[in-house]
Design brief:
This protein has 354 residues and is mainly alpha-helical. It has 17 helices and no strands.
Length: 354
């Protein structure tokens, strides 16, 4: 029954987003306006406009109809996320972990931003396909390729981060044979090299020289500063940029009812992230049967957060875009919580038997 509950719940957020977009500025309206334009195939925003235009040529529909249509990728992604939770916690889920998993999948931010016409719902499906493929990476190569392709078509720099994370995971994981490591490393490295010209062109870097990259980051820190949700991060040290990106607004920044809801959710993420500083997390990294999966998610969160945190001064944009990273972060938190709970239950059982 849970997929049906997710579907109804996610559709509610799609209606909420649709209603919000009627009276506020929203990218969804701009994407839907592509139905009346000639839209060539392009990477990034142009891909979503091209997709909407092609879909409308096949079957027309209203603005609300296309909200419902773009709800489906987000819904499928959430179902994959819950399936991954079940498959990667290698023992029967205690009731408290089940409730935590349900809360994770049904977080308002995870559902709201993936329920509208635009990049976020579609790229969320691509990322979840890739992470689902990482559960059994050598058996689910089509899922990995499909997920990477979807992410590349929408935000190619995120595809590069996924590829770099996979390379790092292959190098760190000790449970993957050298033959498979060499094959995987060769394939992913070749893929990144092929994608690199498109990525640099998309994000506006003239070359991959360190000086050009630094100039790009500094220029990004000064962009999107309009509006009340902007924060000047150019003077922040890296750890504050990361904290700002992942956990703000946090009540003292909240200037609206929506910001208060986001602050409450960020508080949950902050509490969950503190679990990653415990011995239980080290046990997950050391003892999990699928070390490649664990290391991929660790590197993906780490690389993705550093790149996005140093280039996103607008909290409104950060709130929306970090849905690309929260599934991996949440999976690591849930695994740690499950291991910690199991250890406590084991200690209590031993004390009782004594």
């Amino acid at each position: 029954m849970f997929p049906w509950i997710i579907f109804i719940y996610h559709t509610f957020f799609s209606l909420l987003y649709w209603r919000y977009s009627l009276s506020h500025s929203a990218d969804a309206a701009r994407y839907f306006s592509a139905v009346n334009k000639v839209t060539p195939f392009k990477i990034g925003t142009g891909f979503i406009e091209w997709l909407v235009n092609r879909l409308y040529a096949i079957f027309s529909g209203s603005y609300l109809d296309y909200f419902f249509l773009f709800t489906l990728p987000g819904f499928i992604g959430l179902c994959l996320l819950y399936r991954i939770i079940i498959d990667t916690i290698p023992f029967e889920l205690p009731r408290r972990v089940q409730l935590a998993a349900i809360l994770f999948v049904m977080l308002p931010g995870m559902n709201f931003w993936t329920s509208a016409i635009g990049k976020d719902s579609t790229i969320f499906l691509g990322i979840m396909l890739f992470i689902w493929g990482m559960v059994m990476p050598f058996r689910r190569v089509p899922a990995l390729m499909a997920g990477m392709l979807v992410v590349f078509l929408i935000r190619p720099h995120m595809a590069a981060i996924m590829g770099l994370s996979l390379i790092s995971a292959l190098l760190w994981s000790k449970r993957v044979s050298w033959a498979l490591r060499i094959i995987g490393l060769s394939a992913i490295t070749l893929l990144i090299v092929v994608m690199l010209p498109t990525i640099t062109n998309y994000i506006g870097i003239s070359s991959t020289n360190p000086s050009d990259v630094v100039d790009y980051i500094e220029s990004r820190q000064g962009q999107n500063m309009e509006g009340g949700s902007s924060v000047n991060i150019s003077q922040y040290p890296l750890y504050l940029q990361v904290f700002t990106y992942l956990y703000r607004p946090l009540f003292i920044d909240a200037n609206s009812a929506l910001a208060l809801v986001v602050s409450l959710e960020n508080l949950l993420w902050l509490y969950g992230s503190l679990l990653l500083l415990t011995a239980a997390f080290r046990n997950v990294v050391k003892n999990h049967y699928n070390s490649l999966f664990i290391y991929f998610n660790i590197f993906y969160v780490m690389f993705g957060t550093i790149v996005l945190a140093t280039t996103t001064p607008n909290l409104g944009i950060a709130i929306r875009q970090k849905t690309m990273l929260l599934p991996s972060l949440g999976l690591l938190i849930l695994m740690t919580y499950a291991v910690r709970l199991r250890e406590k239950m084991s200690i209590q059982s031993n004390n009782t038997s004594i």
